[in-house]
Design goal:
Blueprint (H helix, E strand, L loop, with lengths): L3 E5 L6 H10 L3 E6 L8 H7 L4 E5 L17 E4 L6 H6 L1 H21 L5 E7 L4 H6 L22 H21 L3 E6 L2 E2 L8 H10 L4 E3 L4 E2 L2 E2 H13 L6 E5 L5 E2 H11 L7 E3 L14 H7 L7 H14 L2
Parallel strand pairs: 1-2, 1-4, 2-3, 4-5, 5-6, 6-11, 7-10, 8-13
Antiparallel strand pairs: 9-12
Helix pairs in contact: 1-8, 4-6, 7-9, 7-11
Length: 321
């Protein structure tokens, strides 16, 4: 019997590649998006045309939109959110509502329909940024780190706080409605077709215009290519090991942001001084996940090196003009 899966946020940076991969595995794939990021491009259009893909245009902030969708799935991958670092500061209320209400409504919809599919919730390393900044959480950081909102006045927490809330909602639904949940904490996923509200495409876009500016040059991050993140996500969903648990998905290779930028310029064959700026307020100085739990279950995580991945992104962005 063909497995039926639901992917929310299926036009998004990770959701699209997840839905594409699942469709290539001959799953019956139902996809939901409201195109908040205006990302209904030719790639998504081709995905939606597949015989085993079923598109529903829906706003998950509105419970009534769910009434039009059949509630009968083996796995639900919930990625719908309003992401993008620039949005955290420019549209914080939109980020908060569009990253919180969909989770509540989706879980309630499953409960009302007496459905208990495997529920995969896409959280983020932003959920524990406060612990790293103020409480010296270990780096690489494991899944049992304390979740801390250090300053609710800092609007950057519009996203991290919503992801923390989503984790609580998922485990509450698991307890009350017997929905088997898994929390996936993504760590700096990058790749083609991601828009510009992320550090790698943002810097590349400016560099291609001859503008060499970098924010947070002293910070460190670890980056995982989107297809590696998607492959790991599917393997996690297939494993019983992570039911009602949390698992980091990312790379354990910590990279200084300045070195990342220099690497990008090297690939572009550009020799220019970079104008350096401090990080936005609230940005964590270091971030690198402990992925030993993931590795113990699925083995190798990253198959695409950072250099290889950056070249893919640069080639894609050049092709888009």
């Amino acid at each position: 019997m063909t497995e039926k899966v639901l992917v929310t946020g299926a036009a998004g940076a990770i959701g699209f590649w997840l839905a594409e991969t699942l469709s290539n595995q001959n799953k019956e794939v139902f996809i939901i998006d409201r195109f908040i990021h205006k990302n209904r491009d030719k790639y998504f259009t081709n995905l939606a045309k597949k015989n085993n893909v079923h598109l529903h245009i829906a706003d998950l902030c509105n419970k009534n939109d769910l009434l039009e969708i059949p509630c009968d799935f083996d796995v639900v991958y919930h990625l719908a959110a309003f992401n993008g670092t620039q949005n955290f500061y420019q549209k914080p209320f939109d980020v908060l509502t569009n990253s919180t209400l969909p989770t509540i409504n989706l879980l309630e919809w499953l409960a009302i329909n007496n459905q208990t599919p495997r529920f995969i919730y896409a959280s983020s390393s932003e959920a524990y940024a406060g612990a790293v900044t103020h409480y010296d959480a270990k780096i690489p950081t494991s899944e049992d780190v304390h979740l801390v909102i250090d300053d609710p006045k800092n609007i950057r927490w519009s996203y991290g706080g919503s992801k923390l809330h989503g984790e609580l909602a998922a485990f509450a639904a698991s307890s009350q409605f017997n929905i088997p949940v898994t929390i996936i904490r993504f760590h700096n996923v990058y790749g083609v077709r991601m828009g510009l509200n992320h550090i790698i495409p943002d810097f590349i876009a400016r560099a291609l215009k001859g503008k060499y500016e970098l924010y947070g040059h002293e910070d460190t991050r670890s980056f995982i290519y989107v297809q590696d993140a998607v492959d790991a996500t599917i393997k996690v969903a297939e494993a019983k090991t992570f039911i009602n648990d949390i698992v980091n998905i990312g790379s354990d290779e910590e990279v200084k942001i300045y070195d990342l930028a220099k690497n990008i310029l090297s690939i572009l064959n550009v020799k220019q001084e970079i104008k350096l700026y401090d990080s936005p307020k609230g940005s964590v100085r270091r971030r690198c996940p402990d992925i030993s739990k993931l590795k113990n279950e699925i083995g190798q995580v990253s198959t695409v090196s950072l250099d290889e991945g950056l070249k893919k992104v640069i080639d894609y962005m050049k092709s888009q003009g």
